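Regression check, S-adenosyl-L-homocysteine case 323:
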Amino acid sequence: MTNQAILEISVECDTEAAEAISEIFNRYNGGDYDSDTEAGEASGGGAVIESTGFDDWGKPLAGEFRLWVKTYIKPGARGDEIRRQIEEGLGHLSAIYPIAEPQFRTFVEEDWANAWKKNYKPLRVGKRVVLKPSWEEFAPQPDDLIVELDPGMAFGTGLHPSTRLCIAALEEIVRPGDEVLDLGTGSGVLAIVAAKLGARFVLATDIDPIAIDVAVENAGLNDVPIGPEGQLEVVLGSVPTGMTDRFRVVVANILAEVHVKLFDAEYGYPPLAEPLAPGGIMILSGIIHFRADIVVDAATRHGLTLIDRKQEGDWVVLVVRKG
Ligand code: SAH
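Current build output:
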């Protein structure tokens, strides 16, 4: 078997530029949001955010915190075109906002799957959750809720503030017996946390087929029973159809403008508020602070009421209730 080279494009930036750069990566090398095509025909994995410089509690350390937005272009006929579009997009952005020069690197597939491991250590999040790479040793406290995680090529190591904000919110909101929808599950981290908090059933969806494989694998690492009759079902897709008013808790850690489009059913899936049960709670994350308003507006237009808002660094989580 021959290894094929994958191109990594990486831009080091501040949290403010991260969203604009992510948008460019998602637009040209991202999940396929086109409602005319089958979900999952994504050309690339979109934007991946990597950061270092946290203390043991996951708080950014002044002077040490660094952030990169990366995207990986898979081998294939359109690679050159995607690269050109991305370079052009970054060029336009750099005219209005100072960003570092993009760095290019090629990988063989094996290196790629392992590259992120070196910066990834056990991480305490919220009150009880500890995210633990499967290859690290960790001595838990009696109340700790350990989640083993190998994010592989999917997003969701817990290093990103938006993931941590979601975990803290889930700890407060999920009650034993709940049904939970995790939209954009990535590594499956939030779905697994919800299951460990006692959710009776968690539906996890993602439009990226790689995320589906990784989430299923991580569920296995944590002995969470998988499948429609199990505790966790992982499905390729987005907002599920035919599930009106079903879930008491919905969590979605996606970018602000994706939330808005999901509320307004612009990708051809049912509107985001539909599967939430009346009185149920939705956790909306992945929102850079200056975009929070557009998400609050969309949620309000769809009959949801803002009940909480928390911020870590530049990232905001909004908690809304239906009705
Ligand atoms: N839930 C994880 C990962 C968040 S990253 C965490 O909190 O860490 C966002 C994920 O949403 C990615 O895996 C991406 O593939 C997925 N995604 C992006 N747009 C989506 C959409 N419209 N519907 C469903 N999933 C989407």
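Comparison notes: Residues 31, 33, 154-156, 163, 166, 183-186, 189-190, 205-208, 211, 238, 253-254, 258, 262, 267 surround S-adenosyl-L-homocysteine (CB under 6 Å). The mean pLDDT is 87. No diff flagged against the previous build.
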